[in-house]
Amino acid sequence: xxxxxxxxxxxxxxxxxxxxxxxxxxxxxxxxxxxxxxxxxxxxxxxxxxxxxxxxxxxxxxxxxxxxxxxxxxxxxxxxxxxxxxxxxxxxxxxxxxxxxxxxxxxxxxxxxxxxxxxxxxxxxxxxxxxxxxxxxxxxxxxxxxxxxxxxxxxxxxxxxxxxxxxxxxxxxxxxxxxxxxxxxxxxxxxxxxxxxxxxxxxxxxxxxxxxxxxxxxxxxxxxxxxxxxxxxxxxxxxxxxxxxxxxxxxxxxxxxxxxxxxxxxxxxxxxxxxxxxxxxxxxxxxxxxxxxxxxxxxxxxxxxx
Length: 306
Fold this sequence. Notes:
Blueprint: E1 3-4, E2 10-11, H1 14-38, H2 40-44, H3 50-65, H4 75-79, E3 82-85, H5 94-116, H6 122-145, H7 153-158, E4 161-164, H8 176-202, H9 207-217, E5 222-230, E6 238-245, H10 252-266, H11 268-271, E7 275-285, E8 290-300
Parallel strand pairs: 6-7
Antiparallel strand pairs: 1-2, 3-4, 5-6, 7-8
Helix pairs in contact: 3-5, 5-6, 6-8, 9-10
């Protein structure tokens, strides 16, 4: 049931906004699938940086449709009879709509780019991951518990309201309990954020792994790489080499051997005394759409004891 505000004006109910969000997510997924199939090779070369493409698409999609240029509604909202307006009931100016869309779409950008920075800059990796957690927590908390206006973080920043049946809301402000609870949640996450940054900043880097990753990513056929040493109980110590390929994998065994040879040449001690497992991946990731065209695992003999 829609939440009633003054003079019979209605703020869109939670279920309507959730249903509209599902519809728009499906439409964005279909758009991502079309782009992924048509432009698979160039997009696969971007690896995690493909989230920048996804962020741009989501920003333009939501910003245009929810501004006065697009009638104030993305297709999902239009299907559910919703639109986005300002406190006077007017459709949003483009800058407000793009601000609103940018804050929400930043969720895709933070988590995706965190993966891109995992070994290049661990502090940035942790900062982006924690920022994504903060945004997610704030948006969900306000969305669920700010029951009077259903304004979440992106709505509050843009001064927008989502309304039903072309009604105009009377701004009532965020209830004090919601503000207090949100503040406590954000403060707790900020504590985790600071702790994670401190631990990452003071952690001792592994020069062998960093050198191996740099060597792999210098290859023209590798878009992104990661090296992980597995210490699973009951299994031999294994060096796992992840390679997101920027070129078709014609012969997985020869490509895997070449990947291992690159690591052996740059960081020979990394493979000594360990089993070697190479994971070859070709994928497209846009944040709102993921497609893996190849995910092949090749086990290679180790180099003998260190």
